Automatic annotation (TrEMBL):
Its cofactor is Mg(2+); Mn(2+). Belongs to the malic enzymes family. The lineage of its organism: Bacteria, Pseudomonadati, Planctomycetota, Planctomycetia, Planctomycetales. A divalent metal cation binds at residues 244-245, 268. GO terms for molecular function: malic enzyme activity; metal ion binding; NAD binding; oxidoreductase activity, acting on the CH-OH group of donors, NAD or NADP as acceptor. Its EC number is 1.1.1.38. This is NAD-dependent malic enzyme.
């Protein structure tokens, strides 16, 4: 049985009901007659012995019987809690259809309804009142763990504070670690840090199953996070710890504080930066251009927006551009308008992306004071526009038409999730740009037919990066996560773009080959980790061998 468990863990043999109730060991109707005799299962299962393929067919039939996506989600989550091998085998065979159900966008709805659709526990819940029991809580995890994804539920996709319901995100992200990156499910652990919620709807909901208090903030918050990191390091010293969907201000502070302390990264900042850089590089290369010639507008200056621009800026500088010159290619817009050097309200991070005020002297602006999005697009004439605001409709028709008037093929990425928060729909973007826009979105969209041409819409989502990052880190036994590893991941992703061979093709490869894409990215990540001195020094052939050994396959 290939469950990703160690021999030692197997020696704690489970029998009978306990065995069929363990999703990591359960084979359900596929337990053979010999296994049924040997493991005390006689009479506990119907007599027919299924193959895994037969189980998959039955499960797919049941999946199709549900019409509402949320019910499909509940069904798949239940299957995952019953039999992980079957769950992943089913998902791998139907990845394009099922990933949006388990992950973005439907996982967003599942977080909002978490307390209503809750069935059985998965992962670890650490609430504020239990802060002094963190060691005991982590001791209750009876397995060795390679990857943790943790959230505090405050910025769930573009849906805001979901409190304990945010747990849906680490569960979904870790499902992708296995599905796309091949990390053994037994080695993954989702965690929610429940520090309360400021979402009044949740607080007023009699079904809410989180800690029913307003959020803890300030020093107490930081102390809690410190207790958590200390406990994780003690219990799982070599684990990869991924931070997910924290409010921007906490996300940045936390990763700055702990990045040199353990193997850790923030997916919304670093994973998003890598997928977007890789996809932008592919879009520009497909159009025959170069990054150094692009003016880039970023709407939204939170975790994602800042992370993306800093990585793109770093990429320009790595190609030989000076810092001031690279900075002048970015027009980053927050709620108060364009970030520029004349503003006195910018923190150190945002100053790194402030447009030099002298470049704006001859701009013709509609507004006095703040420089608006419309002013920026009209005067800056960008070739690339990215949205990370969480605001549906933020890319308006007049602004997109204005952009298209200045460039032949505007590159437009509405990255906000879930689907309901996208800054614009691909259909509208193609309509407003007469079919010229080169598009990638954060959430999945169906292909769009425009004037007889079918446009496949790439999903520029960090899901192309974090599972592969995990695979590369595990294969190379990396001890830290460095910027160079994300730069390598972005470059490797770019190289897989179908648009490099055919500019009308999708910017990103199909999910049906995601495990191969992950292998390539993992290889590049491992090489970068070795070059940075944070991983075992092994040959490229050894890297590939370890990638194959690490990759778990859903089979009995
Ligand atoms: N595609 C992906 O892989 C990916 C990855 C990370 C985040 N996202 C999405 O991006 C969005 C933002 O995520 P984040 O982590 O940066 O959140 P965040 O809260 O840190 O940042 C959002 C920022 O946008 C600003 N904003 C809102 N409306 C604006 C407007 N009209 N004009 C200018 N600025 C505006 C907010 O003030 C905030 O600073 C979310 O919807 C999230 O789902 C997508
Ligand atoms: O979860 C996603 O789909 C991507 C990203 O991490 C987000 O927060 O939107
Ligand atoms: Mg996220």
């Amino acid at each position: 049985m290939n469950t990703g468990r160690t021999t030692e863990e197997f020696s704690i043999e489970k029998r009978g009901t306990l065995l069929v109730e363990d999703p990591l060991l359960n084979k359900g109707t596929a337990f053979t007659t010999e296994e049924r005799i040997q493991h005390g299962l006689l009479g506990l299962l119907p007599p027919h012995v299924d193959t895994l393929e037969e189980q998959v067919e039955r499960a797919y039939e049941a999946f199709c019987d549900f019409k509402e996506p949320i019910n499909k989600h509940i069904y798949l989550r239940q299957l995952q809690d019953e039999n992980e091998t079957l769950f992943y085998r089913l998902m791998l065979g139907h990845i394009t259809e099922m990933m949006p159900i388990v992950y973005t966008p439907i996982v967003g709805l599942a977080c909002e309804r978490f307390s209503h659709i809750y069935r059985r526990p998965r992962g670890i819940f650490i609430s504020y009142p239990e802060r002094d029991s963190m060691d005991a809580i982590l001791e209750n995890v009876e397995r060795d763990i390679d990857v943790i994804v943790v959230t505090d539920g405050e910025r769930i996709l573009g849906l805001g504070d979901q409190g304990v319901g945010g747990m849906g995100i680490p569960i979904g992200k870790l499902s992708l670690y296995t599905l796309c990156g091949g990390v053994a499910p037994a080695k993954t652990l989702p965690i929610v840090l429940d520090l309360g919620t400021n979402n009044q709807e949740r607080l007023d909901d009699p079904r809410y199953i989180g800690w029913r208090e307003n959020r803890i903030k300030g020093e107490e918050y930081d102390e809690f996070i410190d207790l958590f990191v200390t406990a994780v390091k003690k219990r799982f010293p070599h684990v990869l710890l991924q931070w997910e969907d924290f409010a921007s201000v906490d996300a940045e502070r936390i990763i700055d504080r702990y990045r040199d302390d353990l193997c850790t990264f923030n997916d919304d900042i670093q994973g998003t930066a890598a997928v977007t850089t890789g996809t932008i590089l592919a879009a520009i290369a497909a159009g025959g251009g170069e990054l150094k010639d692009q003016n880039i507008v970023m709407l939204g200056a939170g975790s994602a927006g800042v992370g993306i621009c800093l990585q793109l800026k770093q990429t320009m500088m790595a190609a030989g551009m000076s810092e001031p010159e690279a900075r002048s290619h970015f027009y980053v817009i927050d709620r108060d308008g364009l970030l520029h050097s004349g503003r006195t309200d910018l923190d150190e991070l945002h100053q790194q992306l402030a447009q030099p005020a002298e470049n704006l002297k001859n701009w013709d602006c509609d507004t006095t004071g703040a420089i608006s999005f419309a002013d920026v697009v009209r005067n800056g004439k960008p070739g690339v526009l990215i949205g990370a605001t969480g605001q549906a409709g933020a890319f308006s028709e007049p602004i997109i038409r204005e952009m298209a008037a200045h460039v032949e093929h505007p590159v437009i990425f509405p990255l906000s999730n879930p689907t309901s928060r996208a800054e614009a729909t691909p259909a509208d973007l193609l309509e407003w740009t007469h079919g010229k826009a080169v598009i990638a979105t954060g959430s999945p969209f169906d292909p769009v037919d425009h004037n007889g041409v079918t446009h496949t819409i790439a999903q520029c989502n960090n899901s192309y990066i974090f599972p592969a990052m995990g695979l590369g880190i595990l294969a190379s036994r990396s001890r830290r996560v460095t910027d160079a590893m994300f730069i390598a991941a972005a470059e490797a992703l770019k190289e897989t773009s179908p648009a490099l061979k055919d500019r009308t093709a999708s910017l990103l490869p199909s999910l049906t080959i995601i495990r191969d894409v992950s292998r390539k990215i993992a290889h590049a990540v491992a090489l970068a980790a070795i070059a940075d001195g944070v991983a075992d020094s092994i040959t490229e052939a050894e890297i590939d061998q370890r990638i194959e050994e690490t990759m778990w396959q859903p089979e009995y």
